[in-house]
C-alpha cells in the first residue's frame, strides 16, 4: 500500500501544512499519485471526508486515512499531532493487519417520467429534499414490509447511521450506530394545510424506502450530503426514488481503535 492522493479543505491552517505532511509521507516511502491510489489522505473536517468519498467514487477498495483539521471530527478522528505516529503505523503494519472500519453508504435510484435511464447516486450521510420558503411536495413513502403513507412535506431527510449524528439528532431523532444497516427518514411540514392531519412527525427507521412524488408546489432542491445535484434540475422530473443501504462500503482506517459509539459520546460530551 504505497500510492496515495490528497484531499484537503481550503482553510489556511490546513493549506499551510499540506506540503509538509505530503513530504513526511514521501520520505517514508509513500508515493503521491494523481489516480489509482491505494489510499486517500484526507486533511480537514468531516465535510472534507464526504468530498473525498465522492472523489474516489465511493470505492470500497481505497482506504480513507483522515487527519482532523476541523472541529467535530466524527469521521476524521486522527489528531494532526499524531502524524509521525500514523506514518510509523502505516509503515510497520501489514495491510491485512490494519485496523479497518466500514461505513454504510446510502444508494439512491431515481426513476423519471420522461427519461428512460435510471440514475444511481450515493451518499455517505444523507439525501435531503429541501423546500424554498413555502414549497412542499406531496409524496407516498413505502417500505418492503408493507408500510405505506401519503404525506405533504416541506423538508425531508433520509440519513445513514453517520448522518444520524447530525441531521436526525438536530431533528430530535435517534442516533443510529453502524452495527445496524438502517436508514432514518425525518419529515418537516413548514405550512398548515388540509393534509396536516396525516403528516407523520416521528422518524421512520427501516433498511429501505421507496418515495413516489405525487405533486410538487414551488421550488424543491434535492441534495446529497448537502450538495446540489447537477443531474436533476427539477423535482417534477422525478417519478420515484428507491433508497437503501448500499452493498458498497467506505473503508476507513480506525487508527485510534475506538468504537464509534464511544467517539460519539466523547464528542457530544465535549460539545456541552
List keywords for this structure.
272 residues; alpha+beta; six-stranded antiparallel beta sheet; 5 helices; 17 strands
Shape: elongated
Strand content: 35-45%
In the sheet with the most strands, the strands line up as: 7-6-17-14-9-10
Main sheet record: 6 strands, antiparallel
Q: Could you tell me the radius of gyration in angstroms?
A: 20 Å
Number of strands: 17
Provide a brief overview of the structure.
The protein contains 5 helices and 17 strands. It has helices spanning 12-27, 46-55, 83-92, 167-170, 260-271; strands spanning 3-8, 31-32, 39-44, 63-68, 78-79, 100-112, 119-123, 126-131, 136-142, 148-153, 155-159, 183-188, 204-206, 208-217, 220-224, 227-228, 238-253. The chain has a 6-stranded antiparallel sheet with strand order 7-6-17-14-9-10, covered by helices on one side. A 6-stranded antiparallel sheet has the order 13-12-11-8-15-16, with no helix packed on it. A 5-stranded parallel sheet has the order 2-1-3-4-5, sandwiched between helices.
List the helices and strands and how they pair.
Elements: E1 3-8, H1 12-27, E2 31-32, E3 39-44, H2 46-55, E4 63-68, E5 78-79, H3 83-92, E6 100-112, E7 119-123, E8 126-131, E9 136-142, E10 148-153, E11 155-159, H4 167-170, E12 183-188, E13 204-206, E14 208-217, E15 220-224, E16 227-228, E17 238-253, H5 260-271
Parallel strand pairs: 1-2, 1-3, 3-4, 4-5
Antiparallel strand pairs: 6-7, 6-17, 8-11, 8-15, 9-10, 9-14, 11-12, 12-13, 14-17, 15-16
